[in-house]
Amino acid sequence: MPTAAATWITACRLDDIEQEGALRFDHEARTFAIYRGPDDSVWCTDGLCTHEAVHLADGLVMDYEIECPKHSGAFDYRTGEAMRLPACRNLRTYRAEVVDGDVRVAVA
């Protein structure tokens, strides 16, 4: 069965996100978190913690990990993998890229 084609959405400018930082991005009643890695790479996940639906972009980013601001659960934002309890379900991830300084996210 064919998969749905991705739609690329311009979310922000790369300069809007601090290095090792996160930015909340809302699109069509969905919340995403966009991350800027220590090497200026960009990544995108669902924006809410899988433990209690707290906005992850308000959390602490260190290296390639986002820490939930409510209960300190943590995820590897490159893979979505839950790294520390109480987070035990992985985040969904989305492709992200930088084109001419714009951060674009592929949403299905």
Automatic annotation (TrEMBL):
Keyword Iron-sulfur: yes
Record-level Gene Ontology MF annotations: 2 iron, 2 sulfur cluster binding; metal ion binding
Keyword terms: 2Fe-2S, Iron, Iron-sulfur, Metal-binding
Pfam family, any one: Rieske
SUPFAM superfamilies in UniProt: ISP domain (SSF50022)
Tree of life domain: Bacteria
Start and end residues of each Rieske domain: 9-105
Record's protein name: MocE subfamily Rieske [2Fe-2S] domain protein
Originating organism: Amaricoccus macauensis
